[in-house]
């Protein structure tokens, strides 16, 4: 993975989520299995083994190793109606 981009509104949203959960970072990971895999973004207290950590806008974002290895860039944006949106390139 080359780049992580987070827009300013997403940074503010994530900072509030981290604070409300008494966490220290956000984590992007896959959940589910088979044909129904989903990407999730949640506040966490620490990275898991193999995670890769990026810093953006004053927050740490831990990203699952498999995602980093198979993605060029990640964009995280905030939409007032949908919340956080994650786009992969």
Shape: globular
CATH class bucket: Mainly Beta
- Main sheet: strands, sense, barrel: 4 strands, mixed
* The CATH homologous superfamily: HesB-like domain
Total number of distinct structural domains: 1
Main sheet: which strands, in order across? 3-2-5-4
**Secondary structure tally: strands:** 7
Provide the β-strand percentage band.
over 45%
Helix residue percentage: 10-25%
Can you summarize this structure?
The chain is built from 2 helices and 7 strands.
Q: What's the structural blueprint in terms of helices and strands?
A:
Elements: E1 3-6, H1 8-20, E2 25-31, E3 38-44, E4 52-56, E5 59-63, H2 65-69, E6 73-79, E7 83-88
Parallel strand pairs: 1-6, 2-5
Antiparallel strand pairs: 2-3, 4-5, 6-7
Account of the 3D structure:
With 89 residues, this protein is of the alpha/beta class. It has a single domain (3-88), classed as Sandwich (Hypothetical Protein Aq_1857, Chain: A), CATH 2.60.300. It has two helices and seven strands. The chain has helices at residues 8-20, 65-69, and strands at 3-6, 25-31, 38-44, 52-56, 59-63, 73-79, 83-88. Strand 6 (73-79) and strand 7 (83-88) form a beta hairpin. It is globular and about 30 Å long. The mean pLDDT is 94.
């Amino acid at each position: 993975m080359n780049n992580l981009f987070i827009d300013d509104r997403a940074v503010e949203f994530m900072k509030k989520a981290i604070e409300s959960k008494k966490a220290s970072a956000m984590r992007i990971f896959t959940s589910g299995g088979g044909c129904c895999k989903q990407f999730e973004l949640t506040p966490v207290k620490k990275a898991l083994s193999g995670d890769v950590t990026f810093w953006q806008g004053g927050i740490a974002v831990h990203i699952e190793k498999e995602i980093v290895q198979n993605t060029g860039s990640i964009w995280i944006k905030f939409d007032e109606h949908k919340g956080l949106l994650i786009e992969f390139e």
